[in-house]
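pinging the channel bc i need a second pair of eyes. not urgent but kinda urgent?? the chain im working w is below, pasted from the shared doc
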Amino acid sequence: MKQQEGYVDDVVKGFVTWSIIWGTVSILLGVFISLQLAYPELNIPPYLTYGRLRPIHTNAGIFGWGIGSFMAFYLYITQRLTRTPLWSPGLAKFQLYLFNVVIALAAVTLLLGMNRSKEYAELEWPVALLVVVLWVIFSINIIMTVIKRKEEQMYISLWYILASLIGVAVLYLVNNAAIPVSLFKSYSAFAGSNDANVQWWYGHNAVAMVLTLPPLAIFYYYLPKSTGVPIYSHRMGVIAFWSLIFMYLWTGAHHLLWTPIPDWVQTLAMAFSIMLIAPSWAAVFNGYFSMNGQWHQMRENYLVKFLIFGITFYGLQTLQGPSQAIRTFSAFIHYTDWVPGHVHMGTLGWVSLVLFAAIYYTVPKLYSREIYSVALVNLHFWLAVIGQLIFSVTMWIAGVQQAAMLNATNTDGSLHYTFMETLVELYPYWQGRAVGGIIYLVSLLIFLYNIIKTISGGSSVAVETKA
């Protein structure tokens, strides 16, 4: 295929393909480890246990599926918003190879038990160094393309793209600072409560810089492309952007309420977490107001459903998250199954729905095809939404019951339930979560079939959308 206006799209195809592969691995592992919780006999030591497989699931999902897709769409979007071909196609190709090497090494080392035990930062120092090289290569290519742009206007998506590149670099370098003691083992450069504080400054801002800014960049690009109408307010988007960047960086300690972290740090994190509702919902309203007079496209345009439901789940996340950052609520639901319900509404509902829309829009253009089956797209959408809701709602109910039982006391102040009694009550919910995950997996298999048939040039049954 001839590259449109000299744009470098072959590497975009590669990133889309491999992100889908790693995303499939993540969902398969997610379903399996959900079954391991419901049916403990499925844990097969030493390698096929929940403790070994769970970090592979999160890394394959966040970094393989998430960042892999973001790399694809950053390369695709940046060229078009700057009206400039990619600065270095060769560097982008090397980035694709290194990306897959890093994800594969992450999977192997984690399976072997090489784990730093830091959430979202489990990789031992040699693999972590490769991540740094990968990110530097990626960032240089994007930043240089923006610097050499032919389009003077900086569209809102470019603000989010550049901020995430810088933000991830700062967060990753600080939190992954380590003292190696061997080729396969290192210890954090920080200790005690300082280590915890730095870890959750990183952990929550990884949610900001990896699971918030990139999907927003993609949303702001693909909603107008899909609907054929401009985004409601560029100014609102930019104001919300700067507010989001400023506020997010202070919120990490809300993961450490009721810990030895100083009270003023906890209170600061709690306050900024509540303030985050405003810039987050500015993005939601920007999406909703863009649909004024266009809501009929929710029925007629298969892409719009993914984007609007996605931004809606983002809005729900950014109400639930700040509420969890309040001390009294955190004391009740922290360390319960409420939390994975909250997290997966973001990953399966917000991030993934937006990425599915971007893939459905971009792949037919990259391969000069129409989507193979609109009916399958719609089936994929509804199964994904139903599966995600079953997963999240089940975990919320489980978390509330679990918290109530853990906090129940007798008149003399002793605990009313033993830990084992609370655990036994969770099994039906874990089985329900597995059912939700299986439904989501089925939706993903339908998505895979549709994309493969589209790329291979199967007979199209699609109707041209307004995009």
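so The radius of gyration is 22 Å. and Residues 43 and 49 are 5 Å apart (CA to CA). — does that match what u expected or am i reading it wrong
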